[in-house]
Amino acid sequence: MTTQTITGIEAEINRLVGDVGSLPTPPIVFSQIQKVLTDPNTSAYDIGGILQEDPAISAKVLKMTNSAYYGLPRTIESVKQAVVIIGIEAIKNLVLSASVIDSFSKNKLDREFQDYFWRHSLATAFAARLLSRELSGQKVLDTESSFSAGLLHDIGKMVISVYLSDLAEKIKAEKIEKPYLTDRVVENEIMGFDHTHIGAYLGGHWKLPAKLVEAVRYHHDPVACENPENGLPHLIHLANYLALHTFDLNQEEGNKIAIDAVHGDVLEVVGLTEDDLLAYAPALRDEYLKAETFLEMARGAA
Ligand SMILES: [Fe+2]
Ligand SMILES: [Fe+2]
Fold first, then answer.
1. Tens of pLDDT, residues 194-211
2. Where do the domains of the chain lie?
């Protein structure tokens, strides 16, 4: 089954999800912002105006702007002001984060999974942001899209949990029986494709920027990405590994989870050893303390 072509996989996902219309849609405000961003004459003021049309998303963006994530010295009171202070690119990514969290946090099918999912996604997002700053001399990676790519990288798992719940149950049972197998191996065994395919499919449906979709699709195998200009799949691969090592593998023996080995070629590209990478764990733990506002949103409390 794993030898299926991409088109074959897409057709299969299409069939499984039923009709594309049943997947969550991004709020109109996100596509509007994406559209105007292609116009070089777009001002921060225009973006603020678009955002004001959606009070719920505006409120979330303001909350995130004022959270410890940015550590701003004073409280920002309007979205227009927020756009000027943190920049258009940052706002676009905050809108994306707020939209994704919003679309999926209403489903409370498997609370335990959802809780773990957001904690891991946020840990990876913070790791990606940290690494993009640290490795800025190596590749041109902006910290904001690194954060979004980290937050979204496993979104395919959320789609499986919410929309393909029968398969999710099978995957869960198989994982319990064979804890030494990675999620991706089990998913491929049961479905013939994995969460990276489904995540990229959702990203395409949402018309997300291509480099973000590539990061979702290739975060487990960045060297397979055909666009060498895009450093995001490499970065997210490392961020995912760092997040799992920092927060999951340090638990007691019984809770250890199977994770993919870090890709040697990827380490080489960024000029790090595995030990160098894992040395960022304490910094990631500190950074992660800023995740509180995002987690509250995922729990539907904000
Ligand atoms: Fe993954
Ligand atoms: Fe992950």
1. 999 999 999 988 888 899
2. 6-298
